[in-house]
């Protein structure tokens, strides 16, 4: 009898929570929503989030306000949403850096510490750049120089971030060793290459055209299976005879675990509509990115695949930031 009473009570509680979630979803949203960006202002994540927010609020009928919570490579912002109790009024807008935070032990959770929502944009243009004065003209020249100077060829990166893992993959697969230097994000990496403090950096294509035109930078290619739609003039490494790829940045929505699934589903439908809008597609392309739609299920599968790849690079050992 006690067992039956317990089961009935448990079932009743579950039904109550389900009904409560459905009721919340039915009235959602009834106030402004915060789209939390855990990175710097005017960075690619921030800019893409602002475009998405503009189109999302037209469909939701309430303001979608971009709020930046920076620091700790994105951990501060993701933690704010993970600890949020508003049930869908704080939504995280980020990329696979959330996996890097976990693997480098900056954060005690990864992408699966949240309910994964839809993906609304991608950027596959994280190429390798060298100085125009270096004499390096191709990815093969770069690898030859790195092999000739093991541990001395300086790579500017931000420790524990997504592009750091790209360097780790290149090292592992091509048998080279860079001197990895923590120059921070784009605001630090670009001046470091211009000044000669580092010899190579990884960066998205957006914002580099002037440096390429002036000859200050040489872009060695991109780590994609086929040319990125937002940079069709840039060849892949595969085209140059080097079988090296790395997953594109995926700009994805994440929700606190307590968020009713019906609210996540609402955002999935909003995202599908927004990414189908030619005006949104045009604005995202103007940022040097590509529009994309992946369902929450497809997004979660893609993040799981990327986490396996990145975890294999560090083999679950100490933080890569200690290299």
Automatic annotation (TrEMBL):
Keyword Transmembrane helix: no
Source taxon at top rank: Bacteria
Keywords recorded for this protein, A-Z: Receptor, Signal
CDD domains, A to Z: PBP2_Bug_TTT
Assigned protein family: Belongs to the UPF0065 (bug) family.
Signal peptide positions on this chain: 1-25
Entry protein name: Tripartite-type tricarboxylate transporter, receptor component TctC
InterPro entries attached to this UniProt entry: BUG (IPR005064), Bug_dom1 (IPR042100)
Pfam families with a match to the protein in the record: TctC
Keyword Signal: yes
PANTHER family in UniProt: BLR1237 PROTEIN (PTHR42928:SF5), TRICARBOXYLATE-BINDING PROTEIN (PTHR42928)
